[in-house]
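I am still getting used to backbone structure tokens and would like to learn alongside you. Label the sequence line and the structure token line clearly, so we can match residues to local backbone shapes. Would you write everything just below, so we can both look at the same thing?
***
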Amino acid sequence: MNVVARDPLLLGVHVSIAGSIHKAVGRGEEVGCTAIQVFTRNASRWQAKPLDERDVLAFKAALAESSLGYVAAHDSYLINLASPDHELREKSIRTFVDEIQRCHVLGIQDLVMHPGAHMGQGSDDGIKRVIESFRSVFAEVSDNVRVLIENTAGQGTTLGACFEELAAIMDALSGHDLAVCFDTCHAFAAGYDLRSEQSYTAVMERFDQLIGLENLALFHLNDSKKPLGARVDRHDHVGKGMIGEGGFGLLMTDPRLRGVPKILETPSGDEHCHDLENLALLRRLAEE
């Protein structure tokens, strides 16, 4: 039976590309995903081998034959488009251009990225550098891949913990194809309370006012090991952390967000036991 026909939710996990990127498709389907997220290169190294044409063709073929309805890529953790260090920022720009080009070759339409860290120079200067870096990136690549700016927990000097900073970046680059990836753990750690109906509604109304729900393209569904406003990024399994089942239930039953893809970024566990448990819980919450 076609999984998408049975389950219209675009729901899944971040999947390993070990062995070849095309294997990620089967790994996602094994745990019942209708959406997946992948890296297109090693996320912890600057250098990356060019994509092999055979791997690209195998990935596209596997995806075409699959029941997956959505695929996103996540960029390298090393990239910092806000860095005050000129050499590091130029390196980040070149690497991000490569990330976009790899997504285009693979036919992946969405690329998730973190806005970066100002490294002690202040948020305003950091935001300006992110915008300048994006302009350099978009001067080299066309808008054939949508960039999803992910909100952050605000740990250290990272930017993007508040909706205002995300809005500032998007407003300055309004002519380009940008949207937001909303990470629930990051939002909670940054001080956005998702646990009660009243607070959840207030958070989403604020997001809509500043950014627009129409620009919310993807969720990372992670619970938080740390309390509200801790500004520490520590993912927990759905319902096991400080947000709890109630908060995820509000999100999963919000009709405005039904069609937004939702991805887990928590440890999969032995034989994918945690993935299976988390996905089952989210589907149950969506039906309540």
About this structure: The two ends are 24 Å apart (CA to CA). The first strand starts at residue 11 and ends at 14.
